[in-house]
């Protein structure tokens, strides 16, 4: 023991302890940090030499409460929420809960206003009491009950840090695909550690300015997206599913907004004790509501663009490939290199969001026991950063599910925590005057916390009965509700060797589900191209391709070679037989070894193209062309009269006639009747009447049909009241395209 011991912690230093105190007090006065020869004292002296904050959860004396800036309170939350993590909350409105634009905006607004109220209120406790938020919880939950609350807060702080680091890693991956997810997580965690390691003053100094570049980048995103015109006003849903989606999304928004409640007072303990509580409340309130509304509204709006072209657009492609980072990259893509620079700024903004989490987790861990309190705060900062990295790296590929579930849990327990704390403050303690601050570290004088524990259990019971269940009871339910017409989602697995395994499903010709597994290896080939060609590849597409990513599209452009592997059981025997026969087909020389060339004109042993009589003789066994004056119908070029492979409908199935006359009771010597051939089998008389009535009054339409199938045989007769109308129709409709065929129209032959 060293020095003297005073009764009041604020008036002088207590006796230094070289070993851990085993009394029920368990508190370490801030004035004795550097006394003694223990490892704790040595570490604290080292921290003091390099201006690292030494104080942990000990009460701050009035002479150290020198932070007189209200803007420090507001800027703390302004920077912590003006980040891409807040943008990601807005994105979840469509991607996870399938909400429209207006309903997502309204849910976001009201639940944000509700969630930040407790953060602003508990910020008012820091100046008059000089205690951290978890230490204040001892007055509501008791000394031992607060340990359980502290455990929940540790999980919240580390979980928040992990979720935020994943968002930053997605952005870095969108900028450079060579940066893997774990590397991005490590970068974010290391930058956060450097700032929080120094303590309260450095954290406030960083948050004071860090929101400025991030706000500028978000304004650029807003301007680029507004200029693109890709916003889609997704209509609002109705019914029970819409109600459930609104409540689920609202719970997620509330969890993000109220997530700062459990360490709100940590960042106002150095404010003077005579501070106006009203000004402190509105400083924190304004610092929270502005960035939350701005970034989350922007996320909701940008995510609507993924609905363009039924999801076939650059926004959806970017979101599928790199999550929120890919979505922002699609918006900033026209800016080229500057757009990538903006993405890096947004990625580093995660540091401002993680600083409160890592700083507060170091203080919360000291609340667990007097042994953890004897570990310096900056050591807990390092361990908390390592824990967040250990969670973020495995959860990188499942961000949406992790974020939704984590957000809901945060909203549940913090709602219970706030309800119990506010009830105790207003009903039982009747305001700030009902606290005896000097007993904050005396378990026997603090409330037992039994009532709070019982209330918390009832809150958990309500939470369990009210939460959404996404799992089924057993495998039988899974079979019963399985949709046979639905295909499982495509899975992309990144292998250790850098390749990707893509597992997709499709229906084969028999209607059965087929699993297709592809292993993709990406090889980067650098080539020198004309600068103008390279520039054109980055141009924005227009017309039918508007909204697609610049450059070649994978569904219309082949950028690689697809090798189809068909395994065979007896492939070795087949290969040996093929080798024995000299190849599958043999060489062309062997095939033509005993062949002789024969001319088709003179039957000589030479090629037909080199025949000396090709201009004077016709080919052998081919009838000579008729005279120019002969009236041969076959030479008239009628439809179906040639020797080509195409057979018109009216000549199929061995039909001999071409439908030159109407025949039967319709046979008339009508000079105003047209014969229409090459008519589609699906044609109808009403359609033909509509086609030809444009030229004059049609008196009769006859469409020849097959007796068995009742389909058109391929020809029809159209009779007009006036021959001049028929002549005009013949001129216009001959060669007209009707039902994928070209009509042939001529005057019907007169009866003989």
From TrEMBL:
Xref: CDD domains: eIF3G, RRM_eIF3G_like, SLC-NCS1sbd_CobB-like
From the UniProt entry, list the residue stretches annotated as the region Disordered.
1-23, 622-649
Keywords linked to the UniProt accession: Cytoplasm, Initiation factor, Membrane, Phosphoprotein, Protein biosynthesis, RNA-binding, Transmembrane, Transmembrane helix, Transport
Membrane-crossing residues?
A: 70-93, 105-129, 141-167, 179-202, 208-226, 280-306, 378-397, 409-428, 449-467
Which residue range or ranges hold the RRM domain? 672-750
Q: Does the keyword RNA-binding apply?
A: yes
* Coiled-coil annotated residue ranges, if any: none
Membrane-protein topology: Multi-pass membrane protein
Which InterPro entries does the entry mention? Answer: eIF3_g (IPR017334), eIF3g_N (IPR024675), eIF3G_RRM (IPR034240), Nucleotide-bd_a/b_plait_sf (IPR012677), Pur-cyt_permease (IPR001248), Pur-cyt_permease_Fcy2/21/22 (IPR026030), RBD_domain_sf (IPR035979), RRM_dom (IPR000504)
Extract one GO cellular component term from the record: eukaryotic translation initiation factor 3 complex
The cellular location(s) given in this protein's UniProt record come to: Cytoplasm; Membrane
Query: Where does it primarily localize?
Result: cytoplasm
Q: Where is the composition biased (Basic and acidic residues)?
A: 1-11
Look up keyword Membrane and say if it applies. yes
- Described purpose of this protein according to its UniProt entry: RNA-binding component of the eukaryotic translation initiation factor 3 (eIF-3) complex, which is involved in protein synthesis of a specialized repertoire of mRNAs and, together with other initiation factors, stimulates binding of mRNA and methionyl-tRNAi to the 40S ribosome. The eIF-3 complex specifically targets and initiates translation of a subset of mRNAs involved in cell proliferation. This subunit can bind 18S rRNA.
Q: What family does this belong to?
A: Belongs to the eIF-3 subunit G family.
Self-association or partners: how does it assemble? Component of the eukaryotic translation initiation factor 3 (eIF-3) complex.
What name goes with this protein? Eukaryotic translation initiation factor 3 subunit G
What does UniProt list as this organism's lineage? Eukaryota, Fungi, Dikarya, Ascomycota, Pezizomycotina
């Amino acid at each position: 023991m060293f020095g003297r011991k005073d009764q009041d912690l604020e008036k002088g230093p207590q006796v230094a302890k070289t070993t851990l105190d085993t009394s029920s007090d368990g508190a370490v006065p801030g004035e004795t940090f550097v006394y003694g020869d223990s490892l704790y004292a040595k570490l604290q002296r080292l921290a003091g030499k390099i201006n690292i904050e030494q104080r942990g959860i000990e009460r701050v004396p009035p002479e150290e409460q020198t932070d007189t800036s209200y803007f420090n309170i507001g800027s703390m939350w302004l920077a912590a929420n003006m980040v891409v993590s807040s943008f990601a909350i807005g994105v979840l409105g469509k991607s996870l809960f399938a909400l429209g634009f207006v309903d997502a905006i309204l849910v976001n607004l009201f639940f944000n206003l509700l969630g930040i109220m407790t953060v602003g209120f508990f910020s008012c406790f820091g100046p008059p009491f000089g205690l951290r938020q978890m230490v204040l919880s001892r007055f509501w939950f008791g000394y031992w009950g607060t340990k359980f609350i502290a455990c929940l807060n540790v999980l919240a702080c580390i979980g928040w840090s992990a979720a935020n680091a994943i968002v930053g890693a997605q952005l870095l991956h969108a900028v450079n695909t060579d940066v893997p997810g774990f590397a991005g997580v490590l970068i974010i965690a290391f930058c956060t550690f450097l700032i929080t390691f120094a303590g309260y003053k450095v954290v406030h100094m960083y948050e004071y300015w860090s929101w400025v570049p991030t706000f500028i980048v978000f304004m650029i995103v807003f301007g680029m997206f507004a200029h693109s015109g890709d916003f889609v006003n997704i209509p609002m849903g109705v019914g029970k599913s819409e109600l459930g989606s609104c409540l689920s999304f609202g719970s997620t928004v509330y969890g993000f907004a109220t997530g700062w409640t459990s360490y709100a007072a940590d960042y106002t303990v150095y404010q003077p004790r005579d501070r106006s509580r009203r000004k402190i409340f509105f400083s924190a309130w304004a610092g929270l509501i502005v960035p939350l509304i701005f970034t989350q509204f922007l996320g909701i709006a940008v995510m609507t663009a993924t609905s363009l072209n039924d999801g076939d657009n650059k926004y959806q492609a970017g979101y599928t490939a790199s999550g929120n980072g890919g979505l922002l990259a699609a918006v900033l893509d026209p800016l080229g290199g500057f757009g990538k620079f903006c993405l890096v700024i947004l990625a580093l903004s995660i540091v401002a969001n993680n600083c409160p989490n890592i700083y507060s987790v170091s203080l919360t861990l000291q609340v667990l026991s007097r042994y953890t309190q004897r570990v310096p705060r900056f050591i807990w900062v390092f361990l908390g950063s390592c824990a967040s990295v250990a969670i973020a790296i495995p959860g990188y590929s499942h961000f949406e599910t992790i974020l939704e579930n984590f957000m809901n849990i945060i909203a549940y327990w913090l709602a219970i925590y706030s309800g119990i704390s506010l009830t105790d403050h207003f009903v039982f303690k009747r305001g700030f005057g009902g606290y005896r601050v000097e007993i904050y570290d005396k378990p026997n004088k603090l409330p037992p916390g039994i009532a709070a524990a019982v209330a918390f259990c009832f809150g958990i019971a309500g939470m369990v009965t009210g939460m959404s269940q996404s799992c089924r009871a057993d495998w039988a339910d899974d079979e019963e509700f399985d949709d046979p017409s639905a295909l499982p989602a495509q899975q992309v697995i990144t292998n250790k060797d850098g390749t990707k395994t893509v597992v997709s499903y499709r229906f084969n010709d028999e209607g059965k589900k087929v699993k297709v597994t592809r292993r993709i290896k990406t090889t980067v080939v650098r080539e020198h191209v004309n600068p103008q060609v390279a520039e054109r590849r980055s141009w924005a597409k227009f017309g039918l391709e508007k909204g697609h990513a610049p450059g070649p599209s994978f569904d219309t452009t082949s950028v690689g070679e697809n090798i189809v592997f068909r395994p065979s059981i007896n492939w070795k025997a087949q290969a040996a037989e093929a080798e024995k026969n000299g190849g599958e087909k043999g060489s062309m020389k062997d095939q033509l070894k005993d062949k002789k060339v024969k001319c088709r004109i003179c039957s000589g042993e030479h090629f037909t193209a080199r025949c000396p009589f090709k201009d004077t003789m016709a080919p052998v066994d081919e009838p000579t062309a008729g005279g120019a004056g002969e009236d041969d119908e076959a030479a008239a070029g009628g439809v179906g009269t040639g020797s080509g492979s195409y057979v018109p409908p009216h000549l199929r199935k061995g039909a001999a006639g071409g439908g030159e006359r109407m025949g039967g009771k319709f046979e008339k010597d009508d000079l105003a009747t047209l014969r229409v051939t090459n008519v589609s089998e699906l044609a109808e008389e009403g359609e033909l009447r509509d086609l030809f009535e444009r030229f004059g009054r049609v008196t009769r339409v006859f469409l020849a049909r097959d007796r068995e199938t009742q389909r058109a045989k391929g020809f029809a007769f159209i009779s007009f009241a006036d021959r001049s109308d028929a002549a005009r129709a013949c001129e216009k409709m001959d060669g007209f395209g009707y039902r994928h065929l070209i009509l042939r129209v001529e005057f019907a032959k007169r009866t003989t």
